[in-house]
Amino acid sequence: MLRSSAPVASDSPPVLQRILLVALRHLRVARGVNTLNPDALLAQLHWRYAVKKFDPARKIAPELWAALEQSLVLTPSSFGLQPWKFIVITDAAVKQKLVAVSWNQPQPAECSHHVVFAVRKALGENDVDRFLDSIVATRGGSKDALKGYRDMMTGFAGKAAEQGWLREWGVRQLYIALGNFMTSAAVLGVDTCPMEGISPEEYDKILGIEGTEFATVVACAAGYRAADDKYAQLAKVRFPATEIVRHV
User: Fold this and answer.
1) Residues 6+ apart with CB under 8 A from 71
2) Of 33, 45, 193, 211, which alpha carbon lies 20 to 30 A from 139's?
């Protein structure tokens, strides 16, 4: 259980120290679950923005990255099938190569970790069975008891493939993971920039996944904003909730 008096490492970056102190100050325990209060959550969502210029000298600490990586692993997906691969790039040479196929945007090279979200192009019975094996290994029970669930998933995948929208379904799952990752990063005081302005086919070639069962869809740079990124201080432009949220 975390308390507001919990220490923050003295060698943590100053901005991160402030963010962690705010988070710890607002942390509370409700029904055994650690939660941030609404003000703390909204403060982090207002703090984040799509970073245009990262500080290449600042790297995400291993313990923070481990949590962010788990935010990808723990992302929910339809049926729980997880039709994705997350490719984390920290190699400077590879990141630099990606700039040219990212509309010459500098974020891939300047960020600490560049994450590529790749979709599984096809989903067959073997994939479903592998997922069911994981359920049994994790929760116990028998695979035979999951036959109804198996039939539902294989029927869904077969219909989606036949009608040509299986890949689109997988892409939608990836965007759940992207949102989960970006929000988790904001809560931890890590900056991000989602990137659709890329050439997925060229990404596949550079990352060595061309011709495999996976294909690049979108990317997200993660790290820390540069002190002179002029976009950091701009007010957010959002339509009011009264226009875009409807209560029934």
Assistant:
1) 180, 181, 184, 185
2) 33
The CA-based angle 181-89-21, given to 5 degrees, is 45
pLDDT band at residue 99 under the 50/70/90 scheme: very high
What pTM does this model have? 0.88
Spatial distance between the Cα atoms of 56 and 107, rounded to a whole number of angstroms: 9
Q: What is the DSSP letter of 178?
A: H
Looking at the DSSP assignment, which residues form a beta bridge with residue 29? 34
Tell me 32's DSSP state.
T
DSSP string, 185-216: HHHTT-EEEEE--S-HHHHHHHHT-TTSSEEE
Question: In this structure, what token pair is assigned to residue 166?
Answer: 């299986």
3-state helix, strand, coil in the chain (%, to 5): 50, 15, 35
> How far is residue 222's CA from residue 110's CA, in Å, rounded to a whole number?
9
| Pairwise CA distance, residues 150 & 166, whole Å | 17
Q: Provide the angle, in degrees to the nearest 10, between the axes of the packed helices 125-139 and 147-163.
A: 150
pLDDT tens by residue, 190-210: 999 999 999 999 999 999 999
Domains and CATH numbers, the chain: 1-47 (no CATH), 50-123+162-244 (3.40.109.10)
